[in-house]
Amino acid sequence: MLxxxxxxxxxxxxxxxxxxxxxDPPLLSGCPRTSGPEMQYPLEIDYDYGKVSAKLFAQxxxxxxxxxxxLLPPLAAHLSLGEGGTALVxxxxxxxxxxxxxxxxxKDESRNPTWSHKDRLNYCIVSTAVxxxxxxxxxxxxxxxxxxAAAYARRAGLRCVVISTVGAQPAFEHFQTRLGSDFLxxxxxxxxxxxxxxxxxxxxxxxxxxxxxxxxxxxxxxxxKTIAYELFAQxxxxxxxxxxxxxxxxxxxxxxxxxxxxxxxxxxADRVPQVVSAEPGVRxxxxxxxxxxxxxxxxxxxxxxxxxxxxxxxxxxxxxxLRTSNGRALTFGExxxxxxxxxxxxxxxxxxxxxAAGLAALREARRRGEEVEEPVVxxxxxxxxxDIPATAIVSSSRVRRSLDDLIASLKHERGRQ
Amino acid sequence: MLxxxxxxxxxxxxxxxxxxxxxDPPLLSGCPRTSGPEMQYPLEIDYDYGKVSAKLFAQxxxxxxxxxxxLLPPLAAHLSLGEGGTALVxxxxxxxxxxxxxxxxxKDESRNPTWSHKDRLNYCIVSTAVxxxxxxxxxxxxxxxxxxAAAYARRAGLRCVVISTVGAQPAFEHFQTRLGSDFLxxxxxxxxxxxxxxxxxxxxxxxxxxxxxxxxxxxxxxxxKTIAYELFAQxxxxxxxxxxxxxxxxxxxxxxxxxxxxxxxxxxADRVPQVVSAEPGVRxxxxxxxxxxxxxxxxxxxxxxxxxxxxxxxxxxxxxxLRTSNGRALTFGExxxxxxxxxxxxxxxxxxxxxAAGLAALREARRRGEEVEEPVVxxxxxxxxxDIPATAIVSSSRVRRSLDDLIASLKHERGRQ
Lengths: 417, 417
Hints:
- Chain A is of the alpha/beta class.
- The first copy, chain A, is built from 13 helices and 13 strands.
- In chain A, the strands form three sheets. Chain A has a six-stranded mixed sheet. A four-stranded parallel sheet of chain A has the order 8-7-6-9, with helices on both faces.
- In chain A, helix 6 (225-234) crosses helix 7 (251-265), helix 7 crosses helix 9 (316-323) and helix 10 packs across helix 11.
- Residues 393-399 of chain A have low confidence and may be disordered.
- Chains A and B meet through strand 4, helix 3, helix 4, strand 8 and helix 5 of A and strand 4, helix 3, helix 4, strand 8 and helix 5 of B.
């Protein structure tokens, strides 16, 4: 019998790992002892690993993160929406396109309750909000994160304020309307001040970052560890050679790396994979930080098709993830990203642009002659259904073609075979 | 060790179950011996059940339908996109809204590769197309079915002609564009003639129906049996009291009923649940057929918000499903359907209208005082992301609200608590 209780013992500072704070209150603006104006350090949840049985990893990787409860923050089991347990799909064709010898494994996080990886994070955050008596959730997001936070808040019976910017994808606005969120559209520069005012006025728990360099909610990234646990089981109790991760602020990257490290700590796995970040080359603050060997970086640069991960600042958390997993920071160009989305569609998988980031980064790395340890897992983060701009909708419905033309072209093609 | 081989032995006529046809060629216009102008009878796949081990049902209900290979038509394992293995989410709140005593179980089929139940069907159809050498797939669909057929065709390297009608949801058009389908928009009345011309000219395998009363592709509904297999495992090797199914032509209904019946035949389960259809009341051909005790019915009536299941003809297959599972045909009104979608959103689950059909039908049945055997499973078929009309997108982006107003309202509400 596995225990359902969390083995979490506190919030540990990444700025000084000897500092352990209690689980309550959640520290939502980074480590209060080591952070300063120059750098803000995130916290992570630490556990009494001696209390965790390695048998936890003998279970099948089904949906419902509460099955990993010992290695997660205290969860409200009734809030689960059956997140996780996402499919792993092999592709030889995409491996060929990238330049890999073996099939690549695609971890499709669009199979989650709100069709993105963010559900793993928000189940943990909203559970923490409920456990600590927060009256609501507040999130600044134009996309997946806000949709997911709002969904778990509704499940918990909490109000959710979602601060978005004018020009966000219409699918997200429609989703928020359906969920009955307190949805607020503001100009981009007013987003963070608005979030702070909401939190100060209401005591709502932020599901978004409040510091210059990203520190975020310490409880959220823990949910991403379950991707590592699932991959290990899905690959027949093996660790892959490389895991490539679409990277914005690096919470997903950190969670996956930590999950593998925990399996080594518990004697379940014998090594961690190379954990690789994939950022849009137009900004790529983590790649800058790693190249200059600094804790985090702030950059400027134009936007990317991969809007969900085109950040201008990185986090200390992301650098830790790469440094402790023999990882590296990769980037990709916009045209390669477009090709990657098309390659996925060629396998029947439709991802938003951010979701194809790992494939684009790997292809460019292989073209430069870089070695990549196989087998490779690429994390795909969200559905293409969210990526439809209103303009495309209007224009595509005007495309017409005649039946006769189509039949003629199909016959012509068959005749040549 | 489980065998991976299919135990399928042939195509059996529902018009005369003593008639067994070989698996190849697929019979795509109903039973050729029993069908006539008055009624067309579907076929189903039959198996050598003596070759199937009950141990098949001891495995965890993970994604990838090939794990159920003995009870499915011959599958091309490399074409799987990790379909199935979808989450089962409990809800007390929705049970209360319906008027049930126990929590209701929501089987969320939006967690599939193209975010609908149709992936289970199309994996079987496209596998059959590959096995029988069809040069492509042809489908008449404005929605989920066409998206799914096109995705599996791409995975298989087959061309896919998708015939849709002007005015279909923009998300589907965009998906087809991304998948590189041969997408053809025609007026509604030209859809079926166009499909027939494509099939005659090219030899493409239809993934759509070709007869007046629906007969469809005999291989497809077999994929839906896996929902029954998964439910049994997810409920702790128990059969639910009732399974309610959004119903258009009844393929999903038939597959789920057959899956439970097979488990009884193999000694795995001791009974079948009540399998209940949920049709929009504005048309509801199956409910008409059942009330008049005929094999199938044709009706007219206005459209429904549940566009994907607002059919004007039923199938013999659907009536068989209800008659062999102590089932019944329920309908629902449009306003109840709107409430059901909102109730699901209240749990963080966003379904297209058709996906909430089962909840709406159950609520109306309970309001009439009808008994419903518990526990109840409602099958939710697809994501709300596909249900966004272009008009809603344009209008919702114009909604504005001030930060001050929002904060005032949140404070006011807290003050009253």
